[in-house]
């Protein structure tokens, strides 16, 4: 894999994940109590021995840049790197990134500079574990110019994805973006060609793109330079290449989840608490997920009842009830609190004890969850200050609401408390 260059696309505005992307890039959104979304594709690259990695960013990239610089420093004796390439205006190009393909095109000279055979294009907002070595080996063995990683899906979900059709050698011959009705029926394929059993093929007669591509380096350069008006890989570059280049499908059979919306992000996080075995597990010694080393103290639980939950390092939890929730690093939860079906992202810093005492006496709400509060079916972003006896439970069953001045949004029925927000004592949401 030394002759493979990895490119992770992290430049989108992340509008579907707003307000979690209000102050940060989408790949920098916290995940599973201690990680960030960007850690998933980078860890997959490292575990696959792909050590030359560019991350393309554009919106709110400061915290992402900081995280990457603190987390991924390879030894000076290795050729590896994780380098951020931010959108920039130059003499030749005064525009920001216009799409996934345009982002790569603007840094095409960086790609040309490396003596590699393939370029693997990855997304920064998916949860999965993949050995890219198997993917690239398949690409080489089939002699493909471009290989797309695909997942088999059933008819119920198929119309929500970009679908493709293959021949009996696994070569891609047709594309359809979120087809419905008769157009959807036309996209059915025999997925036994890609390795599914006949029973599995019957249940999942469609294949959807994961947004993960392997290009021969020269093919990628030709497509980007010869099609300057095409700005997106999935909708323009790859469908347009089907006529002149060999496109191959690679079937991925493991867990994969696009966590680009508030609802899917919320559900994917809470699914990690599933017993006895979640669909995606961070407990894999052979393929670990890496992140920044924080050197935090152990979490302290004082007379707490905790069930089906994940709790990050450095937390202090007092006499509280936590069920089916994910609790992030440095979280403080005071006495008589109830946290259920919620994602608490934690804090970036500790408040000194004396400062917390002074804040309480002066009516200032300290960072963390105040005494007697209840939080259900919610996401509480980092550094939020939740007062005493606060009730966050979407009591009116609202599906969508934008209350930024009050420190929260509601997305798909999920209350999202903004980063750095303050929710006053006795508030009911």
Tell me what the structure shows.
The protein has 2 domains: about 5-270, Spore Coat Polysaccharide Biosynthesis Protein SpsA, Chain A (Alpha-Beta Complex); about 300-425, UDP N-Acetylglucosamine Acyltransferase, domain 1. Helix content is about 20%, strand content about 30%. The strands form 7 sheets. Strands 1, 4, 5, 6, 8, 9, 10, 11 and 12 form a 9-stranded mixed β-sheet that branches. A hairpin with a 3-residue loop joins strand 2 and strand 3. The protein starts with a strand and ends in a 6-residue tail after the last strand.
Briefly, what is this?
With 429 residues, this protein is an alpha/beta fold. The chain is built from 12 helices and 31 strands. Helix 2 (62-71) links the parallel strand 4 (52-57) and strand 5.
Keywords:
9-stranded mixed β-sheet; 31 strands; UDP N-Acetylglucosamine Acyltransferase, domain 1; 429 residues; 7-stranded mixed β-sheet; Spore Coat Polysaccharide Biosynthesis Protein SpsA, Chain A; 2 domains; alpha/beta
Low-confidence stretches: none
Shape annotation: globular
Named CATH architecture of the largest domain? Alpha-Beta Complex
Class by SSE composition: alpha/beta
- Quick one: CATH class of the largest domain? Alpha Beta
Measure the end-to-end span.
51 Å
Furnish the topology, listing elements before pairings:
Blueprint: E1 4-10, E2 30-31, E3 35-36, H1 39-47, E4 52-57, H2 62-71, E5 81-86, H3 100-106, H4 108-112, E6 118-123, E7 126-128, H5 132-142, E8 146-153, H6 155-158, E9 162-166, E10 172-177, H7 181-185, H8 198-203, E11 206-216, H9 217-226, H10 233-241, E12 247-251, E13 256-258, H11 262-271, E14 300-302, E15 305-307, E16 310-311, E17 316-318, E18 321-323, E19 326-327, E20 332-333, E21 338-340, E22 343-344, H12 353-361, E23 368-369, E24 374-376, E25 378-380, E26 385-386, E27 391-392, E28 401-403, E29 408-411, E30 414-417, E31 422-423
Parallel strand pairs: 1-4, 1-6, 4-5, 8-12, 14-17, 15-18, 16-19, 17-20, 18-21, 19-22, 21-24, 22-25, 23-26, 24-27, 25-30, 26-31
Antiparallel strand pairs: 2-3, 6-11, 7-13, 8-11, 9-10, 9-11, 28-29, 29-30
């Amino acid at each position: 894999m030394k002759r493979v260059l990895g490119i992770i696309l992290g430049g989108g505005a992340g509008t579907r994940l707003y307000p979690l992307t209000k102050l940060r890039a989408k790949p920098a959104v916290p995940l599973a109590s201690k990680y960030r979304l960007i850690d998933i594709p980078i860890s997959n690259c490292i575990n696959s021995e792909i050590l030359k990695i560019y991350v393309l960013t554009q919106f709110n990239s400061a915290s992402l840049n900081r995280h990457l610089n603190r987390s991924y420093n390879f030894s000076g004796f290795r050729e590896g790197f994780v380098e951020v390439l931010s959108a920039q205006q130059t003499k030749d190009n005064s525009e920001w990134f216009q799409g996934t393909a345009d982002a790569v095109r603007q840094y095409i000279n960086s790609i040309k500079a490396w003596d590699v055979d393939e370029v693997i294009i990855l997304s920064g907002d998916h949860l999965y574990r993949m050995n890219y070595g198997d993917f690239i080996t398949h690409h080489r063995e089939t002699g493909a110019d471009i290989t797309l990683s695909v997942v088999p899906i059933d008819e119920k979900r198929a119309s929500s994805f970009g679908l493709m059709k293959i021949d009996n050698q696994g070569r891609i011959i047709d594309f359809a973006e979120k087809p419905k009705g008769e157009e959807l029926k036309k996209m059915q394929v025999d997925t036994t060609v890609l390795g599914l059993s006949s029973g599995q093929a019957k249940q999942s007669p469609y294949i959807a793109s994961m947004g993960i591509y392997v290009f021969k380096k020269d093919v990628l350069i030709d497509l980007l330079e010869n099609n300057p008006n095409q700005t997106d890989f999935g909708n323009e570059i790859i469908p347009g290449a089907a006529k002149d280049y060999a496109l191959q499908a690679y079937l991925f059979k493991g867990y994969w989840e696009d966590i680009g919306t508030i609802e899917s992000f919320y559900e994917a996080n809470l699914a990690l608490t599933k017993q006895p075995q979640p669909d995606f597990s961070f407990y894999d010694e052979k393929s670990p997920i890496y992140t920044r080393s924080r050197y935090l103290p152990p979490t302290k639980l004082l007379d707490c009842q905790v069930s089906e939950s994940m709790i990050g390092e450095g937390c202090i939890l007092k006499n509280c009830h936590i069920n089916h929730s994910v609790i992030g690093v440095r979280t403080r939860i005071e006495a008589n609190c109830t946290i259920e079906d919620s994602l608490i992202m934690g804090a970036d810093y500790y408040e000194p004890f004396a400062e917390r005492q002074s804040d309480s006496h002066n009516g200032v709400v300290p960072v963390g969850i105040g005494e007697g509060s209840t939080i259900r079916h919610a996401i509480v972003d980092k550094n939020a200050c939740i007062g005493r006896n606060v009730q966050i439970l979407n009591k009116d069953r609202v599906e969508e609401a934008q209350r930024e001045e009050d420190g929260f949004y509601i997305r798909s029925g999920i209350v999202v408390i903004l980063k750095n927000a303050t929710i006053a004592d006795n508030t009911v949401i």
